[in-house]
């Protein structure tokens, strides 16, 4: 993994509204696809094809009636060449049962910078000061060189592998000892330390993993923790933490 500070990357900024790709959030979740995975595949393909490409993708979530009924939509604002907008639009359009469209222009000041392409790599926001790139190739993301997308079964297998690995990846630090293995005085200190040390969940971690980690750390019953958006609706377990943050940042 490569990390860079915000000052080391040349983001594409705009004071004018940006064109967007709009995705019906419920439709893509119900169809078993992922906004994150789809964006990563499209941007990785573009970065491999053109190492000089520089583009920044912002995300904005809001209620929309563009699909002829009120839904929660995620808008991908594209700051950069038009080919990026068109490639993202095509990437979501080919997903069966997923509602998406080239949509309204949105001010970037109302959105959150989420993806960035520079130097032939796709960068993701880790926190307010740091961005990272895993340097994945398109073959690693899709399991194939440059052909049809992975089947649903293959994606399920990858998700299972992700869940096995994610226990070590959702935090930047090592897992502390369990509270019940410490003395009473140490347990109080340990709980306080955990709350601070676990504060920065990775943006690509799954909501289900963070929920389970919170329950384990604080000894809460399974299923007692819910991570909700501004509308107070719990996010699906396979949603990413970046989606949760984006919704609250735009509230």
Describe the structure.
It is a single chain. By secondary structure, this protein is of the alpha+beta class. It is built from eight helices and eight strands, in the order ββααββαββββααααα. An eight-stranded antiparallel β-sheet has the order 1-8-7-6-3-4-2-5. α2 (35-49) crosses α3 (82-93). The radius of gyration is 19 Å and the shape is globular. The model is unreliable at 144-158, 160-168 and 171-199 (pLDDT under 50).
List keywords for this structure.
251 residues; eight-stranded antiparallel sheet; globular; alpha+beta; 8 strands
What is the compact description of this entry?
The chain is built from eight helices and eight strands.
- Strand fraction equals 15-25%
For the termini, the CA-CA separation is 31 Å
- Which stretches are poorly predicted, pLDDT < 50 over at least 5 residues? 144-158, 160-168, 171-199
Overall average residue pLDDT: 79
Number of beta-strand segments? 8
Roughly what percent helix? 25-40%
Give the overall shape. Answer: globular
Helix run count:
8
Helix/sheet category: alpha+beta
Strand order of the largest sheet: 1-8-7-6-3-4-2-5
Assembly classification:
single chain
Largest sheet: 8 strands, antiparallel
Task: Note the run of SSEs as H and E.
Answer: EEHHEEHEEEEHHHHH
Radius of gyration: 19 Å
